[in-house]
Amino acid sequence: MRSNLILALLVLLSGFSALASADFQTSPVSTFTATFDTESEETLISIQVITTNDADLLDSLKQAKWNLTRNGAIVLSEISLCSVEMLNSECSSRWVNLSITPPPGVDESAVYELNGEIFAGSDSTTETTSEIYAVENLQAVYLNDITTISWDYPLGIPMNHSLAIYRHNEAATGDNWGSLTKELLQLGLSAGSTNFTIDYSEEDVETLYYYSVTIVYATSEDTRFLGSNTLSEPLVEDNTAPIFIGELSATFNSTTDTTLLDWGEGVDEAGLVINIYRSSMEMELLYEFDQVATVEASHSNHELMIPFSEHRQSWYAITLEDQIGNEVLLLSESSPSTGPIIETTIDSSTITDLAAERLQNGDISLTWSDSTGNSDSIARVWRSISGPIEGFDDVEELPPTNVGAIAYTHDPLDSVQSAWYAITIEGAWGSQQIPWHDETLIPDVNSLSAPVDETEEVIVETEANFTVKIQAEGGQVWNINDGSKRILGVLEPGNIVWIWTTPEVHSITYGQENQTIGSPIGQNGSFALKVIQTDNYWILVQQGDQDIFFEVSWTVIEATEEPQIDDPEPKTTVEGHEPAQERTIAVYIIGTLMIILFGFLIVMLKQPEYLEEEE
């Protein structure tokens, strides 16, 4: 039973075999030739299908696959002489041409055969090929708008050639080189050259390219070998910088000493970062040394800590940078930038306590306090006749001075009844090296809220026809002018302060701060103050309609009692003489009595003359 089944299967299989091979009882190829081309060093295989109208044969031919061998080794496989889509009339007598690249460096006869279900044909040809020469270790680098392609030369390569540079979107191999879409960049590059550059600085580029270098002879190009003379990975060439679309704001927080930069919304794209730049002046071109931070592109804000003891104005800008390093560094009106903002981490950045006063000669005197710690900076002085100074439109800038001067005098040529003044500072603080003008204006701090009247009548002072001198015991003799303020320094309790006039005057009166000028304390042109404690006195010296008003003060380490008034004559009355010697209490008393008596006698002697004048 089993032997009968096997016999039946053998008969059935033999029947199928007879059907399959019955279509190709003879070769379906009428012509098979192999021809070697000495210029291209390639062998052309030409195959022609037989001419027939046998539909079964042609259908079988459309399904059949063939192998091409060279000296018994398969060089091409799965060859179709006709495709299933062809009409029988297209398949019959069809020519098929194949190109084979023989091994390099051979000089021999090669036998080519076409085999499939049956042997289809063969031919032989003599092939003489040269050694393959190609550059090696091809590399390409893109940097700063320049692509540089470089390679090495193998040792012993003849120099009877030139070079060709190609670029293409797909990787190149020996099999696809002929059909590969490629761009010839350079032909005829000198033999021995080891690099080639492409400059993209004048154009925008954003591409992925492979590069290949081939050797070109006078009548041929060696493209048989594409290994290390072509890139295996594409080169990214990209000088197109990403552009951030949006607005930037910057807000300084004086409580936390931080500046918050906000650009609303980040960019959700891989390979991008946001660079933050700061400058002390308005920016047109961004520089690496101005970059203060880099954050992920997905962020929408960033907080910067401002260093201690800084007072600066800042401009900020942000940019997008891709993984290649492309970045828009030239700012335009649409670039996300902002400024200036003032960032200060110091206690005081303006002068304070600004006050204005009209002097008797018509000058305007400005005074202020300086706690900026920047006394060498420039104090810019402003004047307005239209109202308090809140900005710098419709104001007059006067000649500047130093902040540390704490006083300023101005002679207004166009005096008005209401004028306002302000002082701002131009200088550099902290690590800031560039001076800048701080335009901060604060009412009643560095800008007057109330006006000063510049038009009051000018009082023309007449020079007094007498002189006043003052001397502290053991000290220098000082000349006193009207309006003087003389500080005598540190005195000891019991010291005498002498005040005298030349010639004698009608009256010398005194007073202290917040007190009315007192009664005359001397009528013979001199008097003395005994030092008891630290004091400050106003002295008025009068002679007819002329007077000299001045202030004198001193400091005493220990205060015990109010100073007592004597009026002995001083020992010296000439500036520059040696100081008076110490007197005993008895001498003071006697001298005082003698002066009083002498004064009384003078009054009594002159009394008749006065009476006659009155009559």
What topology does this entry show?
Layout: H1 2-22, E1 29-37, E2 42-49, H2 55-63, E3 66-70, E4 73-79, H3 88-91, E5 95-100, E6 107-115, E7 119-128, E8 136-143, E9 146-152, E10 162-168, E11 182-190, E12 195-199, E13 206-216, E14 221-222, E15 235-238, E16 249-253, E17 258-262, E18 273-279, E19 291-296, E20 301-305, E21 311-321, E22 337-344, E23 352-358, E24 364-369, E25 378-384, E26 396-402, E27 407-410, E28 420-427, E29 436-438, E30 467-472, E31 477-480, E32 485-491, E33 496-502, E34 507-512, E35 520-522, E36 526-530, E37 535-543, E38 546-556, E39 565-566, H4 585-614
Parallel strand pairs: 32-38
Antiparallel strand pairs: 1-2, 2-5, 3-4, 3-6, 6-7, 8-9, 9-12, 10-11, 10-13, 13-14, 13-15, 16-17, 17-20, 18-19, 18-21, 21-22, 23-24, 24-27, 25-26, 25-28, 28-29, 30-31, 30-33, 33-36, 34-35, 34-37, 36-39, 37-38
Question: How would you characterize the overall build of this protein?
Answer:
Strands 10, 11, 13, 14 and 15 form a five-stranded antiparallel beta sheet that branches. A five-stranded antiparallel beta sheet has the order 31-30-33-36-39, with no helix packed on it. A five-stranded mixed beta sheet has the order 32-38-37-34-35, with no helix packed on it. The chain starts with a helix and ends with a helix. The protein is mainly β and 615 residues long. It contains four helices and 39 strands.
